[in-house]
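During the second year of the project, the team shifted from modelling isolated chains to modelling whole assemblies. The rationale, set out in the original proposal, was that interfaces cannot be judged from single-chain predictions alone. As a representative example for this report, we include one of the complexes processed in the last quarter. Its constituent sequences, exactly as entered into the pipeline, are reproduced here:
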Amino acid sequence: MKWLSLFFLFIGGCENLTLEEKVNSFSGVHHAIFMATSNVEILNHSYVNSHQFISVPVNTWQAILKLKYRNSQTFSYSFACLLYRVPAKKRLGKLKIVQVDSSKECSDTLFHNSSGDHGEISSIKSLKVYLTNHKKMLLRNNRKIPPYHLVLLLETGGGKFKEIKFPLYNVRREGNARDFKRFASSVIQRKIPGMQIFSLSYSAAKKIDNNLVKEKKLIPTLCHSFDKNCNEVQKFQCQKCQNGWYELAGNSCPLANDKHCGISNCGKKNMPACPRGSAYLRERQGTIAPCSANSPQGFCQEDLITACLKKRHLICI
Amino acid sequence: MAVKWSLVRRAVDAVRSKWGVTSLLLLLTLSVSGGLLWYQVWSLREKKIDKISQIPQYSDILIKSATKIRDWYQMGNYQSFFPQGQFNCPLELSSSHPLNLDVNYYRCNPSFLECVLNQLQGIVPVTHLEKKYAVQVERVGKMVQRYSNQRRHVKIISLSSTKGVGLPAYGVMLRLHLADYSLQFILEDSCHDTYLPQRIYAYSSSGKKGKKVEWDNFQQQIYVDKFLVTNRDIIEWVDFAGGPKELVLSDDRDEWYRPAIDLDLETRQKFCAFRGKQLLSANIYQAATFLPGDIKNSRPQKIINYPYPWTIRKKRSFLYRFNAEKLNKKKCGMSFVKECSKLMSYKFYSSSSTSWVQMNQILGGYMETFYNPIEKEKNLKYSSMKLAGKSKWHQLGMLASMNTSLKGVGFRCFKYVNFKLNL
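Output from the structure prediction step:
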């Protein structure tokens, strides 16, 4: 028994990776997650794109980034956190990525174990994190971080540095993800426009999650709505409509029309009025009229007039 | 008694020495097997690390291949695959490139991509760090007899058919393989719609009173189809994305690139819905075709709708006081009227009859139907190649009524997108 334990101790000890191997493994293990990541949330802005190494608070786990990526098996979204234990005098730093439930925050995972040796790097003296969107970043030493990349710069001792680069193919351009200008197509701007990456090593195609907005056949379903004070009460979900979507007139909110899933029949009798546009109303009429009978907020087919339904939406009667 | 004791002692010694040998043998066996096991574990570990470390490199190669395929898809440059007129896609497109078809047709066309991948036998050659790789494209699409008795390389995806979350409303999915690694990706359609700029527009009633209905799209992001929907689009919908099976569709590939002109209104609306769009409405058609007097001023005090899409001076247009003798190919490209058939054949998918936002096929050519939210009867762009050049119908804003059959009339779609993307 004593011999056997000694033997496994020996084998286990051999599993300890060199730093070079740890960096390569970390990069390889998490590459697929970053390829499929569509959103990177910076949890502490002082840690990202800073010229300073992350040095405080020492000997504590810090959540740096939260990643939203498509799970290649289920096609639904999963979440992961990039965590860093800031080094102390007698204890070197550690970097790991842990998966987290969509309902949880990264701070909830600070003391969780990672997936093992391959998923983390220890013996880090210091760390810098760079994250770029559509523009490249020029560092003080004239080094460039290319667009749509996450770069981890690790100091591993003896003044040596290791760099880990993760390309972010699915992250959308900051600001307007589409080009809202003449001649532009509706394609979303990413690292490679017109291309969405799923994942590496995807094997068997699984049934895609049916997580659409449930559309009732006869009653149109709201997929984005606002209250009377123009606060968003239902987040925009119209991208999940099975048959397109359209806007409704009547809620008197600038830049905030409610939206329905389905085929538009706006302007027809007993159907929603077609929105006339807020700029037109503000500039030509001086105000956005409240939802009321005969309101110019929407237009209808000839011989029909607008009427207000439930103080929210204009319909044609 | 003593003899007896010595016998016992001998026996015990013998057993002891036997045990000694046994334990020695056991130790030896354990050491050898332990060594072997250690070697196995070590080499497995090495292999595992190697495999993991290679992921970024293989990923680069696969991405390079995917980008190459994306370029083929977006550019539709058939000549680079079929030099010297050897075009050969009898099952997907046609057995030769039709002379009356513009190459625009091949751009973002899944049939063209499938044809190219068949031509390359599903292998994408890629060079990475001076090494050559052959990346294999898996057949992930559906097998449909009219194309082949094999599954296709491309898989058509749409929100309504795949019920996906955060997927584009319409796209093409592919899966690439290299060694043990595979990459799955979606190509989006970046070729078939164009942005309608935000500004104040006016819908012109085509009646004699010339009533105008002003509206704006400052709080809407609208993209309109550049081209009329083709038979190929409809066939693809039926074959691969849950379109109505009862539709009678021609198998003649030379019909496929022509506009879909024989569908009823409901089917047209459903097709647009399958692409996450709406049937084009008359006010948006007019907004995308009437040339603004001052493009830079998005809030003009007065809106004049000029009758021709390429000039604000109507007298300069060849359609104003039309003279058939002065007709030439360039003018026929801008508006293919009846007399043009003597000069040239109609070019399908051409972008020469284009508007200020690059919406094509707008005057002459094929009739087109809309949904009209203002004048419900006026649902037809009557201007077409059936009418002589001097016809008053060859003007923007001149809409006719078509109440019953929509035979012989094309259509297109438009879509709204959100400002913010919170997928």
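The mean pLDDT of chain A is 82. The two ends of chain A are 89 Å apart (CA to CA).
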